Amino acid sequence: MPPEEHIGISYYTTKDQVSVARLHYSADPEKNPRSPEGALWLDRTSSGWTGGIAGADWQQEYELNFEIEAGLKIFPSFDTTHYPHFTYDPSARDSPQIERHWPIWCGMDWGTVNPTVFTVHAMESATRVYQFDEVVCIGKAPSEVVEELRSKWYFEYIRGFVGDPSIWRSIPSDRAPQAGVRRMTSVGRMFQQAGVFIQRGANHVGVDADFITLLKDNLWRDKDSPVWKISRKCTWTISELRKIQWLENETEASRDKNDEPERIRSKGVDAFDANKYFCMSVNFESPKYADAPFDSFEYWAQKIEKEDILLNGNIFG
């Protein structure tokens, strides 16, 4: 087990299973942006770098982000400002304890070459949601992924799954009724046959930017009391949030007008996509059935209403 994390110090394990300490400049009290002197240092030092703290040069030199390419980071302050507020340590004494009666939902992104990722969320109330786990599978068939999900203590409490709508595209099946007859199936159908039905999430043009807006202007608007928090054991999700970038404008006309980019880089966004499918399908402002005490009259009345809503194809109304 790695040592307990402190401000500016984190730990990760390399592919060769070597534990490495990651020392960030915020570990120095005089450079911690949450202090007045640290904020002044950051503003003064980053002003001379192309793109400021969002630029690739700064990210590589100061944020220890050696995988970044040209392009603006979407959450450039995640390590220095957001991380302490939007994540939580599940082993800490004051950390939230997930109750089994809380509604549990999963976001899902399917991958063949890329990993398949399930992000697992518990809804404490209308204004408090926790991503408390992630399941990452590489090179596994739908039945094998479901088998891994079934090994989790919370599997029987999951209310539903929301995922990439492309899994419902028809593909040839290897189970034809007879020679010379072509039968079609889909990845979604394979999951369904294994016992997990995945509802179609939103993935229309512009939904990535809409999700980022939802995070910045709603779920993470109040950094002292965010609606959605992520367990620090969800290292795959947190790593993506640290690195995710806008795709630079592709036309000279857009660059000349300094248009804001609207598309993200599609590499390494598997957990981001899984969370997008979940978050963009949930009405965080009024999940009507999440507040009633368990086993109360209101709880069961709202549960019946919820199930009626689900039958009509909506998740939270």
Fold and architecture overview:
The structure is a single chain. The chain has helices at 36-46, 56-61, 78-86, 142-150, 187-193, 207-219, 235-243, 252-256, 270-279, 297-311; strands at residues 9-13, 19-23, 87-88, 104-109, 116-125, 128-137, 158-163, 171-172, 184-185, 198-200, 228-231. The chain starts with 8 loop residues before the first strand and ends in a 6-residue tail after the last helix. 30% of the residues are buried. With 317 residues, it is of the alpha/beta class. It has a 7-stranded mixed sheet. A two-stranded antiparallel sheet has the order 1-2. Strands 8-9 form a two-stranded antiparallel sheet. It has 10 helices and 11 strands. It is globular, with a radius of gyration of 21 Å. The chain has a domain at 74-285: Nucleotidyltransferase, domain 5 (2-Layer Sandwich).
